[in-house]
Amino acid sequence: MIHRLPTLQGVVKQLQQVPFLASKNLYRVLSHFLEMDPAKIDAFCAALKSAKLNLIPCSRCFVWQERGQACLFCGDTKRDTSIICVVESWQELLAIERTEGYKGLYHVLGGTICPLDGIGPEDLTINQLVSRIVHPVKEIILAMNQTPEGEATSAYIVQKLLKIDVKISCLAKGVPVGSSLEFIDRLTMFKALADRRPF
């Protein structure tokens, strides 16, 4: 039936390209947009376009930042520059920040090594991480999700850092295996950071 509604079909094709939008919710999301007030649709589209134009990754830690402004983390003189917490994406960073217990710097990899998806080490910011590890950096916290891809990425990073004099730690195993950090509650995340162990 949808092929008889080319306009609707066009929107559906665009929504199908959103990676984390489950197919069972696709038509609910579409209905939500179709029922929105035109002014709200305009505001939504304008905000999305503005984000695309004005948000860029920090050239050092790869966290999103406003174009033309200092990075919220690299530019914060109150943060501990001797510790770098390595995360897969900015969603995990936000989960850690919600604990209010970590005051070091971050490094966003942009994903994990996953040969099945065609993602290798060169597709991530691992080399940029290695180049950051100079004085005063003393510790690297590997805060990867407890998945096979996360573990493989952590192991690869450890191999890259073997010849560098830096402490490498990972989150305590209070974080459930197979879970995503962005969905972990604040207390569990805080304890995982506080009780981190050598990798």
Automatic annotation (TrEMBL):
Boundaries of every Toprim domain copy: 82-176
Family that this chain belongs to: Belongs to the RecR family.
GO biological process: DNA recombination; DNA repair
Entry-linked SUPFAM superfamilies: Recombination protein RecR (SSF111304)
Record-given protein name: Recombination protein RecR
One MF term in the entry's GO annotations: zinc ion binding
Described purpose of this protein according to its UniProt entry: May play a role in DNA repair. It seems to be involved in an RecBC-independent recombinational process of DNA repair. It may act with RecF and RecO.
Keywords tagged on the record: DNA damage, DNA recombination, DNA repair, Metal-binding, Zinc, Zinc-finger
InterPro entries in alphabetical order: DNA_Rcmb_RecR, Rcmb_RecR, TOPRIM_dom, TOPRIM_RecR
Superkingdom of origin organism: Bacteria
